[in-house]
């Protein structure tokens, strides 16, 4: 049972609406619903009776609510007591992020953090996962969001897996495959690809998937900018394999499921060697903002 799950339950109980509760908690509705369902499964009871139009607390939910509220209040008091011993948080904190974060809503998390700790200066550093891991291990980066092949775990740092998602094939709406609902890797064997630079963790999962299938791949375009990759795909110059959440609303792009396609894991990484209070506070906010 996690504090964010308790927050989500209280928000739904207050608003009687999953959409409004998600907005109140600054998360997408699917993430909020998933976390509440996970909690219900763990408890073995339903906390809410819900249809497409109504949401009400069950008897179990009514019984759960007072202790859940008390637990959250106690956690908030504990956090306040701890920070009171060091006064207002100040100083710099460096957050490293890959170009394609989907498991965390970074801007909203930073808004929450800045509202609580306005005197902290946050430096954002965009880089590949291997550079960020080295930066965290060396103390140059306080916290990092990483993207790695599903079989790889960050080494030399503390970490927690945030999400695991299968890539989709991203093509222009003008592409000959745009109308397909599902593809095999073999269907993409003759395509021209755009991908992250060779040897980078952002590209490794795709390279490994094609190698495992024994299928060659032509990566004609390389870039470290997700926006540039999507621009090239939209111009029908190439296809890409990317997490589905990266696609831009309104773009002339189609996302197609790929059987046997690459899977990426996102991780939150940090060092336990003498972290600053600001870094510890930001880490707590990021972990609570997982979507």
From TrEMBL:
GO CC term (a single one): protein-DNA complex
A Pfam short name: HTH_1
HTH lysR-type domain ranges (all copies): 1-58
InterPro entries reported for this sequence: LysR_HTH_N, LysR_subst-bd, WH-like_DNA-bd_sf, WH_DNA-bd_sf
GO molecular function per UniProt: DNA binding; DNA-binding transcription factor activity
Keyword GTP-binding: no
Organism of derivation: Streptomyces boluensis
Family, similarity comment: Belongs to the LysR transcriptional regulatory family.
Keywords recorded for this protein, A-Z: DNA-binding, Transcription, Transcription regulation
Record's protein name: LysR family transcriptional regulator
Lineage: Bacteria, Bacillati, Actinomycetota, Actinomycetes, Kitasatosporales
